[in-house]
Every structure is written in C-alpha cells, then in structure tokens.
Design a protein that fits this description.
The chain is mostly helical and about 160 residues long. The chain has one domain (about 5-155). The protein is built from 4 helices and no strands. It has helices at about 5-50, 60-105, 110-120, 130-155. α1 (about 5-50) packs antiparallel against α2 (about 60-105), α1 packs parallel to α4 (about 130-155) and α2 runs antiparallel to α4 (about 130-155). The N and C termini lie far apart (about 80 Å).
Length: about 160
C-alpha cells in the first residue's frame, strides 16, 4: 500500500468517526427536543380537555382524538429516529472497521465498497420517517386546536 493511499484511508476513517459522533448527537438532541415538545403540547391539551371545566366544551371528544393521535405520533418520532440512527450507525461502523482492516493489512479498500457505502447512506424516503411522524404530530395538534376553536365559534 502506498503512503498516499494510507493517508487517504486514515482521512476517511477519521471523517467517519466524526460523522458518527455528530450523527448521534444531532439525532439525540433534535429528536429529544422535538418529541418532548410535541408530547407535552398534545398531552397537555388532552389533560386540559379531561379536566372538570372542559366537559361542556363543544367538540371536546373530537379534539381529544386529534390530541391522542398527536401524542402517539410524538412517541413514534423517538422510536423511528432510533431505528434510522441505528441503521446509519451500523453501516458507518462496518465501513470504519473495514477501513481499519485495510490499514492493518496495508491494502487499498475496493472502490466498489466505498461507493456502495456512500449510496447506502444517501437520504431516501425511509430516512425521513421520524420527520413524517413529527409533521403528523404537529398536524394533529393544530387540527385539535382548530377543532376546539371551530366548536367555540359555532357555539357562539
């Protein structure tokens, strides 16, 4: 293995390590915050509608259904983000291990493996499932609020 190849592999390995750490940190913080906010908003609205003063509120039952759907969707954000992150992390760890082996054996990794890794990590419709769940949770919250507002307007 030539020295320039070795340096290139070490560079890619280092970038993968940094990328893994950043990916974990990003997913952890962002989805934790988003899930907590949507969970709190939908859960708080549900609790408010279950209180003593809300029994006469028009559209209460329909709004409760929307908020409950928002609550479930907010929990899906966390679950789906874990699945997506684990898949990406596993691919990255496997490639990093492969590159470590190449460094130890002083061989150049097959270009096809590197290209397959890059292709496997391109965002696609499945990698956005946590975001879809977040959008659904937010949408259910807005519909729930709209249901209450519309019911109050109609009740006069």
């Amino acid at each position: 293995m030539e020295q320039s190849d070795r340096r290139a592999i070490e560079l890619v390995r280092g970038e993968l390590q940094v990328g893994e750490a950043r990916l974990y940190e990003h997913i952890s913080r962002t989805f934790q915050w988003l899930m907590a906010t949507l969970f709190t908003a939908n859960g708080g609205a549900s609790i408010a509608l279950l209180g003593d003063g809300a029994h006469d509120l028009p559209g209460r039952i329909y709004a409760l259904v929307w908020f409950a759907l928002g609550l479930v969707s907010s929990l899906l954000i966390g679950g789906l983000s874990i699945v997506v992150a684990l898949q990406a992390s596993n691919r990255s760890a496997a490639m990093r291990t492969r590159l470590e082996g190449c460094l130890i054996m002083e061989e150049t990794p097959p270009q096809k493996e590197l290209l397959d890794f890059v292709d496997a990590n391109r965002p696609n419709w499945k990698t956005w499932f946590p975001s879809y769940a977040g959008a659904a949770s937010f949408t259910f919250f807005v519909i729930g609020i709209g249901t209450i507002a519309g019911s109050l307007l109609r009740a006069g």
